[in-house]
Specification:
By secondary structure, this protein is α/β, with parallel strands linked by helices. The protein contains 4 helices and 6 strands; from the N terminus they run βαβαββαββα. The chain starts with a strand and ends in a 13-residue tail after the last helix.
């Protein structure tokens, strides 16, 4: 069975495994989402495991490792390079590529909030401060 890891410290209270594993099951994907609490001292070892274990197809990254994982990656998506932080790692053979999907998600949430709001956002030339 393939695995996707959630790397961070702490991650024990994350709700992600329940949601991600339910999605894998619903889609018939043979994969398991696994919490992996990783201290700063153990990050290099876990990144080597991610690179070398063909069953691990990628990882999500959370605090405090979003910046420090960059040193272990072979490639960065241009947006992740501009931001200087990674929240998603894809494994392609033995190569690791970092992505940052936080910005797109944040922009989408703002756009949805604005479209559902009867009030304009401040600074848009339509009033506000």
């Amino acid at each position: 069975m393939n695995k996707v890891l959630l790397l961070g410290d702490p991650v024990s209270r994350s709700l992600s495994p329940g949601m991600q594993n339910a999605a894998f099951d619903a889609l018939g994907v043979d994969c398991e989402y696994v919490l992996r609490e990783v201290s700063r001292a153990d990050l290099a070892v876990v990144m080597a495991e991610l690179r070398g274990d063909e069953r691990i197809i990628g990882a999500n990254v959370t605090i405090p490792h979003k910046e420090s994982v960059i040193a272990y990656l072979d490639e960065l998506d241009p947006q992740a390079a501009r931001i200087g932080a990674v929240n998603t790692i894809s494994r392609q053979g033995t190569k690791l590529k970092g992505w940052n999907t936080d910005v797109v998600g944040f922009q989408r949430a703002l756009a949805e909030a604005e479209s559902n709001s009867p009030f304009p956002l401040a600074g848009e030339g339509r009033g506000g401060g």
